[in-house]
Amino acid sequence: MSDDISSLVFLVYARSHVRLELDEALLTANAGRQIHLITTETVTFAIQNGDPERARVVVHRYRDRTDITEGEVHDLIARVLDGRELPIHVTSLSESTVELVGRVNLRLGLAERDYGHFVHKDRMKQEAAALGVRTPRYHVWDRRRFLDEGPAYLKEVMSDVGLPCFVKPTNLYGGIGTRMLETRQAIHDWALQRRYDAQRYECDEYIDWPIYQCDSIVCQGVTEFCQVSVGSRPWADIYGGHNVGIRTLHPDDPLRARLTAVAERINAGFLNGGSGVTCLELFVTAEDVVFLEIGYRPAGAGMASSPYYRQSQNVHLNEAHVLAQVDPTWRPRPTFRSHVAWVVVPQPMGEGVLARIVMPSLDCQTQMYWNVDVGSPVGANAGLDRYAGAFLLWSDCYTSLTESYQRVLDECRLELVAAHV
Predict the structure, then answer these.
(1) pTM for this one?
(2) pLDDT (0 to 100) of residue 216
């Protein structure tokens, strides 16, 4: 290892089937900084703009995510340091490893608290409510009480959150394990199916209003950049076979300033002087802005590694999450480029051989990313963990963008034929 290394950055990424892209030149602009990527054998990634002679990005692959434990990361850091006293930083670029990285940083004395309030949805709501932001009514599911009290407990849950309600794991991501339940019988059936399930769930008030996403870069507690986008429908709907997407809000939309102000308040409270990228989701109802959830990492669904933020504001979000934490003098320099949308196309509800991809005509620029090939077998729907493909759309004309975006959402689909045995 080179003697000119002055600091070490450990990045943890374990989202299989969602490609990670990093710009080595941006991450290692400080000549003495070395990056250690901790990942798994199932992750695909690309390191761009690297210098082979400098070897500033070192990759450590584990078999799967369960092998990346707090102890393994701690031991790896000790091996890399090899007795040297160097500044170190540990950060996560994937939803599934945020809590792990928080525990590592707490153990190393690099953080004053863990990152549980960015992971557990009930803790998030408690923190947001303490900041004066409205949250959905919710009830943390108690399977023991359901088994002991039955109908009386269901009556209490429905009194707390109403019907329909939305059930979800408290600590998972990407719509995994989520369902909308519309009747008392549906709640009862769901509870019976999970009576021996140790996973922790919550029941949320169902809010049928658009979801907005605020992607922020925070430097020492101050929100230096916030891009506001609006979703087509909940990300969880991808599990029902729906195309799902997101598009930037027009810069002149008055809602943009309102939601940015809410994001600034939440970022300041959740990070408490810290730095990094947050991904915040909000409902906007007729009366109020309602907190949904927040992540301490760049956006999921492949967005952070796509050109979504680069094409809209000339911002590299993955790299920004790292640089904001490791360099107190670094600040983003956003520049508006175009209006942008991102659409994720799921794998079909059934299995078969892909016969064709139905594509609408579009009046904007487009870049497509396909994980499936015509003539090849396609597996059944796996949500955001393994989707068929994605569209990046952009245009200088907001009307053209929104019309093309809607056509992709409505018309793009995969047609299958039965596989020959």
Answers:
(1) 0.94
(2) 98
